[in-house]
TrEMBL record:
Membrane topology, as annotated: Multi-pass membrane protein
GO molecular function: proton-transporting ATPase activity, rotational mechanism
The keyword Transmembrane helix appears for this protein: yes
UniProt source species: Plicaturopsis crispa FD-325 SS-3
Chief subcellular location: membrane
Protein name: Uncharacterized protein
Length: 74
């Protein structure tokens, strides 16, 4: 459960920032482009952080120690 708390906490923050971007972008000819750009940027940053974080917490392959005599750094 402790693994999912930072992920969910930052998801709430990202969704809150997206809501602010939706509500507070000034009206104009490029309002939709600005909203979409901000929301896409926030979503991409969140996904990159989440994937990196979860890959470090739950690696696909656990590190192994090598006890060979000639293996230095391998």
């Amino acid at each position: 459960m402790s693994t999912s708390l930072p992920v969910l906490f930052l998801l709430v923050i990202a969704v809150g920032l997206m809501a602010c971007a939706w509500l507070f972008v000034p009206k104009g000819p490029h309002q939709i482009v600005i909203r979409t750009s901000i929301m896409l940027t926030l979503a991409a940053c969140y996904l990159m952080w989440m994937i990196t974080y979860l890959a470090q917490v739950h690696p696909l392959e656990a590190p192994r120690k090598s006890f060979k005599a000639g293996a230095v750094g391998h």
